[in-house]
């Protein structure tokens, strides 16, 4: 639950939806409450939706007409696999967009990135298939990880935050998996998580099963 108290007196606040590293997505109703509070405080709420295409959530873009205190960041480097092009966009009321444009460099998007972005957005069949695959494989991977002895948290993104069994350190588990050729995110540097969490990506089914088998082996060794 996102608290409204933290919004009071702020000129600028960011909300990640779905969140990283948990994958949790704040309901649209809560986003609306926060945007309303930002308007009362004279501030701006920026919703980072870099992972929203992977989720079943309706984008906060639908709220823009009613809330001049709201802006939405979207990225094409995640869902559309365009990391090298560093392409994304901001959806915001005209006044906010005008202020941002004044601060941007003149050649901020190259022609290759522009054409790739347009082509990606037109491929709606890719988006439909990818969203369905991620949703199905995320649930399957979560079940397999749970059976292996870990505890995946519910996610709306293309990754899972995984709680390790008591006493196991994320850094050690990461190093053991790395020796097997598998890289996971050690989440010990995320505030509030400590050393008991790793983050794993939802990939192809064969790769996901390699991860599960390797993690099961590492956890068995750590328990011994």
What do these coordinates show?
It is a single chain. It is built from 6 helices and 8 strands, in the order E-H-E-E-E-H-H-H-E-E-H-E-E-H. The protein is of the alpha/beta class and 224 residues long. It folds into 2 domains: 5-122, Aspartate Aminotransferase, domain 2, CATH 3.40.640; 134-223, Aspartate Aminotransferase, domain 1, CATH 3.90.1150. The strands form 2 sheets. The chain has a 4-stranded mixed beta sheet, covered by helices on one side.
How would you describe this structure in keywords?
single chain; 224 residues; alpha/beta; Aspartate Aminotransferase, domain 2; Aspartate Aminotransferase, domain 1; four-stranded mixed sheet; four-stranded antiparallel sheet; 6 helices; 8 strands; 15% strand
Brief synopsis:
With 224 residues, the protein is an alpha/beta fold.
Write the layout of secondary structure elements.
Blueprint: E1 12-16, H1 28-41, E2 44-48, E3 70-75, E4 88-91, H2 94-101, H3 111-122, H4 124-147, E5 151-152, E6 159-163, H5 170-179, E7 185-186, E8 197-201, H6 205-223
Parallel strand pairs: 1-2, 2-3
Antiparallel strand pairs: 3-4, 5-6, 6-8, 7-8
List the total number of helices. 6
For the largest beta-sheet, the strand count, sense and barrel status come to:
4 strands, mixed
Please identify which CATH superfamily of the largest domain we are dealing with. Type I PLP-dependent aspartate aminotransferase-like (Major domain)
Q: Class of the largest domain in CATH? A: Alpha Beta
SSE topology string:
EHEEEHHHEEHEEH
Secondary-structure content class: alpha/beta
């Amino acid at each position: 639950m996102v608290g409204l108290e933290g919004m009071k007196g702020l000129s600028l606040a960011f909300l990640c939806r779905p969140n990283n590293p948990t994958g949790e997505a704040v309901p649209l109703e809560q986003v609306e409450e926060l945007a309303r509070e930002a308007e009362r405080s004279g501030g701006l709420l920026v919703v980072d939706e870099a992972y929203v295409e992977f989720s079943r959530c309706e984008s906060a873009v639908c709220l823009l007409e009613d809330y001049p205190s709201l802006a939405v960041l979207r990225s094409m480097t995640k869902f559309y696999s365009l990391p090298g092009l560093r392409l994304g966009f901001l959806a915001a009321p005209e006044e906010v967009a005008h202020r941002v444009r004044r601060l941007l460099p003149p050649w901020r998007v190259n022609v290759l990135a522009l054409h790739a972005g347009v082509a990606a957005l037109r491929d709606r069949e890719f988006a439909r298939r990818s969203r369905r695959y991620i949703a199905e494989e995320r649930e399957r991977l979560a079940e397999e990880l749970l059976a292996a002895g870990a505890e995946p948290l519910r996610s709306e993104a293309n990754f899972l935050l995984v709680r390790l069994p008591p006493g196991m350190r994320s850094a050690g588990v990461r190093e053991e998996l790395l020796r097997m050729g598998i890289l996971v995110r050690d989440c010990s540097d995320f505030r509030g998580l400590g050393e008991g969490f790793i983050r794993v990506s939802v990939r192809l089914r064969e790769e996901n099963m390699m991860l599960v088998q390797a993690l099961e082996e590492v956890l068995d060794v750590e328990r011994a």
